[in-house]
What does this fold into?
Amino acid sequence: MFLRKPLAFIKRDFLVEISYRFSFLLNLFSILFWVVTFFFISKLFGESAAPYLKDYGGEYFPFVLIGLAFSTYLGVGLQSFSGSIRREQMMGTLEAMLLTPTKISVLVVSLSLWSFIRTSLNVLVYLLLGIFLFKVSLNLTHLLPAFIILILTIISFSSLGIIAAGFIIVFKRGNPITWLFTTLSILLGGVYYPISILPPPLQKFSHLLPITYSLRGIRNSLLGDPSWGALLPNIIALAIFSVILLPLGILVFNYAIKKAKRDGSLIQY
Amino acid sequence: MPYAIETVNLTKYFTPTPGLGRLLAHPFRKKGVVKAVEDVNIQVKRGEIFGLLGPNGAGKTTLLKLLSTLILPTKGEAYVNGYNVLKDEAGVKESIGLVTGEERCFYWRLTGRQNLEFFAILYNLSSAQIKKRIGEVAELLEIGGMLNIFFKEYSTGMKQRLSLARSLLPNPQILFMDEPTKSLDPTAAKNLRTFIREKLVSQQKKTVFLTTHQMNEAQELCDRIAIIDQGRIKACGTLKELQSKAGIPEATLEEIFSYFTSK
It folds into this structure.
């Protein structure tokens, strides 16, 4: 069965995860603290932020809640591939995996699946807290375009993450891709504030980052009442990122594996 | 292909990455090359216990990793169960199991059984095969009673047996063992050697290729021994043949080793 191996990884990671019960609780509290913190920050802004947020319903708290929730996919997309490979290298289990008749591409994707599932649960917790605790009103009539944007977002971020994993395989530490895209995405991607408040030259850089289109598309879908036509530019931009970055990621990763096998460093850490 | 393993001028050179200081001081200096394995020609017969004996850093583990497709050779050829390690990686992987002396190569917060089930899926075993095979290897290795215990609670000997159990899951024809008794106490090491000889080779007809730097282990266990030093095979054969090559008829393996390696 095609999904047997990915499911085995999910089961393994789930069993390991629940063996750390305190970590699970801490994660939930961490989300709660972030949401509460930004709720009070949004009180500080009051109506003054409304002109910048008119495309997203005019309120800061729902805007930043979506930013906080969905930017977690950026983190997991960029870090989970390289992080999980490095973890397996350090545990000594990567060698045992590489000796099984399992394709490396299947291994890399499967190693990160649990991280994406956990992140999706975190996003759900963010949204449920927003809806039930802080009475945020989400428009659930555009779930299909939001889902398409989410899938393209995951593909784009994961492609960057696979490139980052290639760096980790060759250089072990010092991963410029994750650092660069995380920093720039937080600064220019519109996680905490709309990019319209940035100076125009910086806004141009924002348009080179997938997160800009992800957050704009998801916010428009869940906070506004857009037509498909209005969402289409975000979908097209993310599709272009995906089409370029995914093959590039696979290319870089395959090269990294070959180089590490040549150098004899595939299972070193 | 009459041999379980055959290499033809198998060679592996490494180019070490220079440190940042050296790179800044001499950015254009040509990198040095480490000759880890050089022109290795060996033939291992089916059903044989073949020992690779050498000091630390001699190239034993590198040769083993070349044969198990974890490292690409610089030149030369290697065949495992008739499969070329460069051209038919999948065929090689289906033919081999690898046991290392490494203690950390499992998931510590899973039980022995959960660990074996996970790797069995990676070995493409069906659900029915997994149950059957884990039962068989548990019986063979006498580990049935410890499978439901978390790996973190295992002793070193238990960890080693679980590692052996994992390598046997796909029922491979050839077993690679990298210093398998490295961290075992003398009794556990002797038990493992008996197990390899009586169960794996005599009963199950497997080919065992093991690396060691322990003379007694090589002498007690192996049908033939290759002495490796500085990446080169210095001599290869049965104890009698090695004695004859060294020209010392009653020599111990230690004396033969010293003769060929000057150590």
